Sequence to fold (279 residues):
Amino acid sequence: MSGQAYDPGGEGARMSFDGAMSYGDYLRIDALLSLQVPVSDAHDEMLFILQHQTSELWMKLAVHELGAAREALLAGRMAPMFKMLARVSRIFEQLNNSWDVLRTMTPADYTRFRDSLGQSSGFQSYQYRMIEFMLGNRNANMLRPHDHVPPVRDWLAAELARPSFYDEAVALLFREVHGGTEAMPAPLLDAPHEARSEIQEAWRRVYEDVDRYWTLYELGEKLVDLEDYFRRWRFNHVTTVERVIGFKRGTGGTSGVQYLRRMLGVELFPELWHVRGAL
Fold:
């Protein structure tokens, strides 16, 4: 060994970035790292902020992918659409893993800065609300927490005015299975999707003749995968909140764990789950 420090520049790596775009420039690292601003002196508040900011970044990607997947579905570009749905499932897998880090925060740790949060709460995440709206869990009442930010409210309201991703999937299902001989159930634009027997029956035909309806079968399974990861994220949310604050009310005024447990019962694509018992 020569004892000399390794110099990547000797192998062609650029070492000077005057007038050139660097990694930090491209990703705007300085701006990104300036956004973590604790409002208390509690050590664990940095963890809490980073957990939620990174979750919002992953949700931004989920919204991006779901929007593109819906457009691909409408254009009949099934292969790219399947890839996008698979990516959203992996995003929620990543979000699930992040709860393990937050669970290292104990009730005593959280109590040190909880009052500093005021009325802010994950309940108010408009990107999470958009993901639910896009997938079909729609509730016009959930626009109200965003009335104070009109562009956000308008963004969410525009989603409620158009068919969800699942509505578009059901439209394709009926076109392929019934060939236009049976009318598709009307989308519920501003209400949660509820299980409907005629949709379940169409999915049953797909699952009982996989070779004939392979593309629809693959679509159904991709949606089940997505909801599987989404449910795990909700479950981990509940258990983490119970572990840290017990049954206290949420900072945003919800009933806390009781509210989150109620959300565990929500089914995004109920017919795809119920049809399994009918095969």
